[in-house]
């Protein structure tokens, strides 16, 4: 994870895969709730895993 890049753009969730909040939210709105499924929806796969908590937070916020 590149923390410097995340600080420069707070909408960037996953620096390894260039996934932004919009990418994650789109997957969630399409019914994906699991981290690996969300990555797969965006045609990628988990790499370092540092974004897992942020992705889970987005899932939790949308599913409230």
Automatic annotation (TrEMBL):
Residue intervals of the BFD-like [2Fe-2S]-binding domain: 12-60
Name used for this protein in its record: BFD-like [2Fe-2S]-binding domain-containing protein
UniProt lineage: Bacteria, Pseudomonadati, Pseudomonadota, Gammaproteobacteria, Alteromonadales
InterPro entries recorded: BFD-like_2Fe2S-bd_dom (IPR007419), BFD-like_2Fe2S-bd_dom_sf (IPR041854)
Pfam families: Fer2_BFD (PF04324)
